[in-house]
Specification:
The protein is of the alpha/beta class and 141 residues long. It is built from 5 helices and 5 strands, in the order αβαβααβαββ.
Amino acid sequence: MKTLGIFLFGTLLQISSYAMADLVVIANPQSGIEKLSKNDVINLYMGRNRKLASGVNALPVDLPAQNAEKAIFYAMLVNKNLPEINSYWARLMFSGQGTPPMQAETADEVLDIVSSNKGAIGYIERKKLDKRVKLIFDPTQ
C-alpha cells in the first residue's frame, strides 16, 4: 500500500510538472527545416530516423536523467517514464540497432550544441529561446 501511495504521489507530481514546463524543440537555423511534427520528433529522439527532413544528419540532444525537463519531455512525447526510455535504449544498443541521443549537461549546453551543429535538435524551456536557434516544434500547438 505504501508503494502505491508513493507511485500515486510521483504521478501527481509529474502531472503538475507538465503544467509548469513549457518545453519546445529547437534546431540550428542552418538545418534546412522550418517545423517538425510530433511524429518527426518522436522518430528522431527514439532513433527511428537518423536524418532531418532536409537530408542533414540528425543530432538529437538530450538532457541528463536527473533533469526534470527530460522526464517531462519523454512523458509528453511518448508517454513513457525515464526507466522505460533507458530500457528501450539498452535493448537497441545491445542489439547494435542504435545509440541514444547525445547528452548535454544543461539547457545552456543544449543551446550551445544546437547553435553550433547544423543537424542538431534539442529541447529547452521556451523562456530560454534565443536568436542562435529556431523553434521547430511546440507541443502546445
